[in-house]
Amino acid sequence: MSETNLPFDEKFVIIKQISSGEKLKKEIERSLTNPQGFWDEKAEAIDWFKKWDKVLDDSNKPFYKWFKGGILNISYNTLDRHIKTRKDKIAYIWEGEMGEIKTYTYYQLYQEVNKLAKIFKEYGIEKGDRIAVYLPVIPELPITLLAAARVGAIHTVVFSGFSSEALADRINDCEAKILVTADGSFRRGKIVEIKKNADRALETTPSIQKVIVVKRTGHEIEINSNRDIWYKETIEAVEEKTYVPPEPMAATDPLFILYTSGTTGKPKGVQHGIGGYNVWAYWTLKWAFNPTDQDIWWCTADIGWITGHTYNVYAPLSLGITSLLFEGTPDFPAKDRWWAMIERHGVTILYTTPTAVRMFMKFGEEWINKHDLSTLRILGTVGEPINPEAWKWFFKVIGKEKMAIIDTWWQTETGGYMIAPLSGIDLVPLKPGSATYPLPSINAEVYDDRGQPAKTGTKGFLIIKSPWPGMLQTLWKDPERFKQTYFGRWENLYYTGDYAVKDKEGYFWLLGRADEVLKVAGHRLGTVELESALVSHPSVSEAAVMGKEDAVKGEVPVAFIVLRSGYEPSEELRIELIKHVRATIGPIATPDEIIMVNKLPKTRSGKIVRRILRAVLIGSPIGDTSTLEDASAVDEVKATYEKMKKKT
Ligand code: WT7
């Protein structure tokens, strides 16, 4: 792979917290020399019913067991342990799409979680049972997760923007017993029919015994009296001050399953454990942002994704801080919604995505300047590479050139931050577009395609050489796929699927996915999933989906398709196919373009040559076509695409 031109000549950004970096270096050294000693000490920060016997059991690689023998409950660590010292402290400030505001103190949250835990028990939920959650970002979402964790159940949240089909697949894969959902949710002031989606899914999910329905929109919905229960009435029927003892859980018991896209059509059920994950969530947030009792933390992610799980639920509540939760859209009712919210709630830390930053750049500064953002003290991003222009804009316009930008690289699988500046230990000079150094105990390296460390400044594959507490335990009911996907390329090395470069100061630059996974506005989408969705439509015989650069969303999916005989390309068909993809996966998977061609460029063995399709998309030279079965396919694809571009 070639040397990469990074903005190396950028002057380091100097901000006042910056120090020599010695302290960070020492902590990193200490953690890598003696990882077990390091974590033995760090794990004391959370509460345990019984201490672990062994920090790391690596006798069955790559199925690592952290804090083996330890007993704890994460709902205790996020709630009970704060009741003595910060009972009346606000845990959540919630703002709904329509402007409603609700707050929960730690004590109120604790009470409601206990009540719901009681209900779960009454419905026969036992340790290890699965509870599926299909909710918008409303307080009942974290409450459900914490109540599930309290009784030892495993939760699986399905992002409320996913389709009924996606919901059914996930429920069936983990055979959930209970579904918690809502009558609807709000999007730009309009009702989204969540319950209707759930009902459709429930036609094919025999494992579900009860459905708990939160009233969010209050519009009329169908209620199946054998199965559906209203959340509010049920909770209100539970006695005040109900206490459900937190189930003593092994550190190595699973806490949740979160499905994410991979390189095949079937989403992967990423399984996280309790002990290691709790320790990792606690320390990563503390190291990166160092939130204190005075902070108002705002992570803008939906709890349907890992970012919301770790940094809207488990990490901030383990630290006992105040978080802002927001249900809705950044530009509703107006383009200054977020800035108004920061002013209204006195947000001190804003953690968001590069896509959001680029969107606000486009909206213009007048929306920002209307508001007093002086409470902010530090900023962060996640989900996709941040381009230096967006970084600098964020730094200048929102950060007033005084605030650090904590660019956090991590994945659903890693449980928490892996590469990020650590203002809670020692903030190193920042370079726009680099996530700086790996966290303590993260043994990261960039490899070339032969499995050797890549030369400094040369693009390669990011790998992690040793286990860390927050890592996934396995893929739900699919240990083989777990081994194959993450440890199959190089034995005992965790393969991230990302490209990266290490520069001469040892800074890491994350350069996007090296596999068939897209990051669309920070959301993870498998091209194969999209292709399967397209070919499941009767008109499509073949599909090739790839990412195309987009100024705001980073990348967007573009599909080349071949129609079955009897179908002709038309605008109506294009619209129908888009509808079909949205109904199969969800609106986030909407293809930006669908290019209908007679044939796709293929090798003689029948493999679609994506490189050529990509070249057509970006208008770069096509290169060698000698291996193609039929080189005329290239001209046809090119001509079709160019004709289409002219039209729009
Ligand atoms: C993929 C993981 C991690 C929480 C949200 C996404 C990309 C994530 C960064 C970053 C460059 C990033 C990677 C990674 N990614 N953060 N700071 N810089 N790329 O979790 O959906 O599991 O996606 O997101 O490509 O592999 P996810």
Describe the structure in your own words.
There is one protein chain. This protein has 648 residues and is of the alpha/beta class. 32% of the residues lie in helices and 23% in strands. The protein has 19 helices and 30 strands. An 8-stranded mixed sheet has the order 12-11-8-6-7-14-15-23, sandwiched between helices. A hairpin with a 2-residue loop joins β9 and β10. The model has no long low-confidence stretch (mean pLDDT 95). The protein binds 5'-O-[(S)-butoxy(hydroxy)phosphoryl]adenosine. 5'-O-[(S)-butoxy(hydroxy)phosphoryl]adenosine (WT7) binds next to α10, β20, β24 and β25.
Task: Record keyword descriptors for this entry.
23% strand, 30 strands, globular, seven-stranded mixed sheet, 648 residues, binds 5'-O-[(S)-butoxy(hydroxy)phosphoryl]adenosine, single chain, eight-stranded mixed sheet, 32% helix, alpha/beta
